[in-house]
Amino acid sequence: MASAYPHLLSPLDLGFTQLRNRVLMGSMHTGLEEEKHGFDKLAAFYEARAKGGVGLIVTGGISPNFRGRVQPFGSELSRPWHVAKHRKITEAVHRHDTKICLQILHTGRYAYHPFSIAPSKIKAPISPFTPKAMSERKIRTTIRHFARCAKLAKKAGYDGVEVMGSEGYLINQFLCPRTNKRTDQWGGSFANRSRFALEIMKAVRAEVGSDFIIIYRLSMLDLVPDGHEYAEVIELAKGIEAAGATLINSGIGWHEARVPTIVTSVPRGAFSWITAKVREEISIPVVAVNRINTPEIGEQILAKGEADMVSMARPLLADANFVAKAEAHQSDRINTCIACNQACLDHVFENKRASCLVNPQACYETELVMRPAQQQKKIAVVGAGPAGLAFSCYAAERGHEVHLFESNSQIGGQFNYAKQIPGKEEFHETLRFFTHRLADTGVKLHLNTRQNAESLIAENFDEVVLATGVLPREITIEGIDSDKVISYLDVLRDHKNVGAKVALIGAGGIGFDVAEYLTTKESPTLNAEEWSAIWGIDKDYEDRGALTQPKPETTPREVWLLQRKTSKVGKGLGKTSGWVHRATLKKKGVHMIPGVTYQRITDEGLWIEVDGKEQLLAVDTIVTCAGQLPLRELQQELESAGQSVHLIGGADVAAELDAKRAIRQGAELAAAI
C-alpha cells in the first residue's frame, strides 16, 4: 500500500548519516532532568517515541555550564561524570532506528537564578533577576563550554547536538539590539553581534569532527521590538551553514514576545512561510516548527517545499506512536495535541514534571502502566465526559468489561462546549480520538441512556464509576429570576439568543470562554492570514522583529467580564496561555472588572458596586459563569445498597472544569482497579 505521507515518511540523507523520516521531535524540558532517578524515566520517555517511529529526537535544553542553567538546580552537561546518566537515554533510543541530539541551552538573562549573565546588564521581563554583563574573558570561556558540552554529548552516545540560538536565550540576546548594547567586538554592527553565534558553531564543529549532527536553532522571527532584520537572519543562516551546521531549525518568537506562537488559538502551521523564505537562501536542510500537530499538516509543508523536516514536540507528548500510526494508515487513531499547554509547559514553568492533558502517561511511562488485569471485572461508567472516556478506554485496555452510559446522544461532556469556542477547535480532535478508542478497546457504549441506582444495581456490576460531571452553581442576587439571566450552558449547549450588551458573572476559564464565543464573528484560528494580521505579524518583514501595527478587531457585542475577587481578572488562567486570552479580549474591547459586588438585577440591567461606588450596566443579557457543583446524586443510594462506587472528574471535584485532572484521575483509577 502506498504511503499516505510520502514526503513526511521519506528518509533524509545527511551525507554521513541518514534519518528514517522527516519527523523531528522538538526540544521540550520535562522536569525529569532534575528529578531523582529522572534519567531512568527520561530514557523510557524517549525510547517510547523512538519505538513509535520518530526520525530524530532533540532533548530538552541542557546547560553547558552553571550560569546557563534554567534554574539553580537545572541540568547541565559539563563534567565527565555527567556522561553516564545521559548514556542511559542514548542507549534506550538506539535500540530503535532513531537518532537523538542533545540541545545545548544557555539561558542568559532568562535564567531564574541570581547568577545569570548576558551580553548587557538588561533585566528580562520574565525573570526577577538582573544579569551581569559578560566580560570578554567570560564570553570566550562560554564559547569553550559549548564545545566542551558537545564533546561530552558525543561521548555519551548522542548523534549530535542542537545549539539553541533562538527564543530569546543567550545567543539570541547577543544577536539583537534589544539586548546587546555592547560597544566592543561583540556588539554594535551585525558582524559583531553575530560573532558569538558563529564562534560557538566553529568551536563545536572543531571539537566533534565531521560525522556528528549539529543543528542550529535560528531565530527567524523574534516578534519583539529591536529584534533581527530579515537581511540579518539570512546573513546569519549563511554564516551558520559555512561554520559547519548540518541542519537549521526554525525559532519563532522570544519568550517575552506579546505574540502567541504555540497556544491552541494559533493556526496550524502558521509559521512555515518564514522557514520557506530562509530555505531558499541556503543549501542545508531546514526544519519547520510550531503548531504542526497532524501528519497531514507536516506532509503539506514538505510537499510545498517549505521545509525539509517538520518539528513536533507536544504532539509527541500526546501520542508516542504518532509516526507509527501515520505509517500504518491509522492517522485517525492519533491522539492529537490540542496545544492547551496545561500539563506540559504550564507544569515546567511551575517546576513540576511535564505530562499531557490528553495523554497522562507522558513522562510517566514507568509509573502509570496499564498492565493486564489479574481479575476481569464488569464495570459501569456513568458519564462520557473526559474522565469517563479516559477511564473506560484504559480499563477496557486492561481487559475489564466496561459499560459506558451517557444520557446524551454524543460523547464528550463539557468538551462539546469547549470545542465551540473560537481558538479551541482542536477539541474536536480529542473527541474523534476517543470515538475510535472506545471501539478499538471494546468499550460497550450506551448513548441516550440515563441510569439510576436501581438499574445499575440490577446489572450486578463489580464496580460503578461515577463520571457524571457538574452542574452550574446557582447564585443569589436580587432579580436573578429575570428573563435577562441565562447560564453558560444556555449559551453553549442550547444556543439561546444573547443581546448586544452582555454581562458575564464569573471570570474564570468558563467566563473567558463565553466572552470569546460572544465577541467573535469568525475564528481567526481557521484563517492564518487573518490571524497574523490581528497579532501584527509582518510577513513582508520590513521592520525589526517582523512586527507591524495589529489589525483592529470588530466584535458583534459589548461585553463586561466581572469577578468578585480583587485580583487581576484571569489571574488563575494557565501560566503560558492566560496572557493570550486576556490580550484577545482586550483587543475586542471587553471590560474586565475585578472587585465587583453584585447588587441587583432590574429591567434596566445589572447593578454592581466597585470601589464603593454603585453603577448600572445597562445590558440586555446576563450570563452566569460562577462555578460548578459536583453532580453525584447516585452515590449515596448506590453505596447504601453495598455497591462499590468511585467518583472521578467533576463528580469528584467541581473546581474550574479541569480536563487535565479528570483524564489523569480516570487513568490512575483504571490502572489500579
From TrEMBL:
<dbReference type="GO" id="GO:0051536">
    <property type="term" value="F:iron-sulfur cluster binding"/>
</dbReference>
<keyword id="KW-0411">Iron-sulfur</keyword>
<dbReference type="Pfam" id="PF07992">
    <property type="entry name" value="Pyr_redox_2"/>
</dbReference>
<dbReference type="InterPro" id="IPR023753">
    <property type="entry name" value="FAD/NAD-binding_dom"/>
</dbReference>
<keyword id="KW-0408">Iron</keyword>
<feature type="domain" description="NADH:flavin oxidoreductase/NADH oxidase N-terminal">
    <location>
        <begin position="8"/>
        <end position="331"/>
    </location>
</feature>
<keyword id="KW-0288">FMN</keyword>
<feature type="domain" description="FAD/NAD(P)-binding">
    <location>
        <begin position="378"/>
        <end position="643"/>
    </location>
</feature>
<dbReference type="InterPro" id="IPR013785">
    <property type="entry name" value="Aldolase_TIM"/>
</dbReference>
<dbReference type="InterPro" id="IPR001155">
    <property type="entry name" value="OxRdtase_FMN_N"/>
</dbReference>
<comment type="similarity">
    <text>In the N-terminal section; belongs to the NADH:flavin oxidoreductase/NADH oxidase family.</text>
</comment>
<dbReference type="GO" id="GO:0046872">
    <property type="term" value="F:metal ion binding"/>
</dbReference>
<dbReference type="GO" id="GO:0008670">
    <property type="term" value="F:2,4-dienoyl-CoA reductase (NADPH) activity"/>
</dbReference>
<protein>
    <submittedName>
        <fullName>NADPH-dependent 2,4-dienoyl-CoA reductase</fullName>
        <ecNumber>1.3.1.34</ecNumber>
    </submittedName>
</protein>
<keyword id="KW-0285">Flavoprotein</keyword>
<keyword id="KW-0479">Metal-binding</keyword>
<dbReference type="InterPro" id="IPR036188">
    <property type="entry name" value="FAD/NAD-bd_sf"/>
</dbReference>
<keyword id="KW-0560">Oxidoreductase</keyword>
<dbReference type="Pfam" id="PF00724">
    <property type="entry name" value="Oxidored_FMN"/>
</dbReference>
<dbReference type="GO" id="GO:0010181">
    <property type="term" value="F:FMN binding"/>
</dbReference>
<dbReference type="GO" id="GO:0033543">
    <property type="term" value="P:fatty acid beta-oxidation, unsaturated, even number, reductase/isomerase pathway"/>
</dbReference>
<dbReference type="InterPro" id="IPR051793">
    <property type="entry name" value="NADH:flavin_oxidoreductase"/>
</dbReference>
